[in-house]
Amino acid sequence: MHETEELVINTGPILTLIAGIGDLSLLNVLYKRVLVSFEVSEEIEAGGAAGFGIIEFKKSNFLEKWSKPLTITPFLRNALDLGEASVIQLALDENISTVCIDESMGRRIARLNGLRLTGSIGILIRAKQNGFDFSMLEVINRMKSQGIYLSQKIIDFALQEVNGI
Prior knowledge:
The chain has 165 residues and is an alpha/beta fold. It contains 10 helices and 5 strands.
């Protein structure tokens, strides 16, 4: 089941998965290791106005949460927000080949650094392919109801990929 054994994940996909599924448990089944940078942990635990996802994030004790800030290269620090920059830096530092980033600029910079990519929808497609029983359309609707933006192109792709699974 572990096509990609290890993953470094960004704030957006963590919150998107919580919005869609309700927790992060599928990550524990799909990946041997899921790393979260100190910077991403700080973003999630800051919680914004509603504090969305904090409880689910803290309950996910299988996540390897870095306990101290990373030394991020000036290029990454200047090109991206702190969370995305830290995800890429942690992957490079720990020699992990795959990152989970949803934002297009972060994805571009990750590719430039030779990293493989997935996003929150990619993880959900993989979960469906591995036998998780949920309706992709219902998950997408829950994400949207929590204010998660998904382009129609991404929605169509997700539904097409899981059609027939």
